[in-house]
Specification:
The protein has 15 helices and 7 strands. The protein has helices at 13-30, 46-54, 76-84, 106-113, 128-137, 145-155, 159-172, 180-186, 196-203, 207-215, 221-243, 248-255, 259-269, 274-292, 298-309; strands spanning 6-11, 35-40, 63-68, 91-97, 117-120, 142-143, 177-178. Helix 9 runs antiparallel to helix 10 and helix 11 (221-243) packs parallel to helix 15.
Length: 319
């Protein structure tokens, strides 16, 4: 990245951090003694910071100021005025904004006026898995396809979180080859547990794992049941497509799912014969109707569905 005085990086957090690191590296290559100072726009008085920027650094040291949380700035117009000014020699300013910041934000407009905005959008959902593999590869890791998909699911596809987990895996895995077992033992969701692991275990027809995942949840049983029914409907639809020998490339367009999620659901759909998938869906709809009509306790109905769907051991995958 060229060593321009001011730049605004906005978009995907991981890509912004990569671009910021490249800018910092370029500045250090030109001036190894350059200082880097971080600020947060919602914690700093813009007028006081402006005075600091315009002051001449002691001992002629170069300075690189990084200002984060631009979207939270309390007085955005003052920040816009600051960004429009010239800077002393060897002083550089990098703003970092979340993807939520709007193009109408005063600071964005000010930086755009001096052609200093770098927009770094997140990769398309369908390419997140491939991008995640590349991120892990930067740490010398060689994950299996299943491991990458599991990591993407656990992090919600957040590339910054994936990079953080990559550093941890490199430090603690003890091997460059990474499989699902390693992901399960070292990677933990960084937020409230979601229902999706439960849906996946149900689709895999794994009774013990389904009950463990269910025990982690604190959501309403009725909502979980409704979500499980929708999950089973997806699996039944995919089972129909499999039986009709529809190529996977065509399925992507038919079901409107990211490629990584389609592969995950197809693996589950192959655990069912068509009649089993239809029967599971039929039972789920009936139980959901009973719950909504007040004829059955939601948790009892959910447990019955889990037991019915997982009543037989997971069958070998059927094409």
């Amino acid at each position: 990245m060229d060593a321009v005085p001011v730049v605004l990086l906005m978009g995907d957090p991981y890509r912004c951090e990569r671009a910021l690191a490249e800018r910092d590296q370029a500045l250090r290559a030109a001036d190894p003694a350059i200082e880097r100072q971080a600020r947060f726009a919602d914690e700093v008085d813009a007028a006081a910071f402006d005075m600091e920027l315009q002051s001449t650094p002691l001992f002629a040291l170069g300075r690189h100021f990084v200002v984060r949380s631009v979207e939270k700035a309390r007085k955005p117009k003052l920040w816009a005025e600051l960004a429009a000014k010239g800077l002393p020699t060897s002083t550089f300013l990098s703003f970092v904004a979340s993807p939520d910041v709007k193009s109408s934000h005063p600071l964005v407009k000010a930086c755009a006026a001096r052609d200093a905005v770098v927009v770094l959008p997140a990769p398309p959902a369908r390419s997140v898995t491939q991008t995640a593999r590349g991120v892990l590869g930067e740490y010398g890791l060689r994950p299996s396809a299943a491991a990458v998909e599991d990591l993407v699911a656990r992090t919600g596809g957040d590339l910054l979180a994936i990079a953080s987990e990559g550093r941890k895996l490199r430090a603690f895995a003890g091997t460059a080859e990474i499989g699902p077992t390693t992901i399960a033992s070292l990677v933990f969701p960084g937020s409230e547990p979601t229902v999706y692991p439960f849906f996946d275990r149900l689709g895999e027809r794994d009774l013990r794992a389904s009950l463990r995942a269910l025990d982690d949840l604190r959501d309403d049983a009725g909502r979980i049941l409704g979500g499980a029914v929708r999950h089973l409907a997806r699996l039944a639809m995919l089972r129909v497509l499999l039986d009709r020998r529809v190529p996977q490339a065509e399925m992507v367009g038919l079901v409107s799912l990211p490629d990584w999620l389609l592969r995950r659901l197809l693996a589950q759909a192959k655990r069912f014969r068509l009649e089993e998938a239809v029967a599971a869906l039929d039972l789920g709809v009936r139980l959901d109707t009973e719950v909504k009509s007040g004829g059955r306790a939601a948790f009892d109905a959910l447990l019955e569905l889990v037991l019915a769907v997982t009543s037989s051991p997971p069958a070998a995958a059927r094409g």
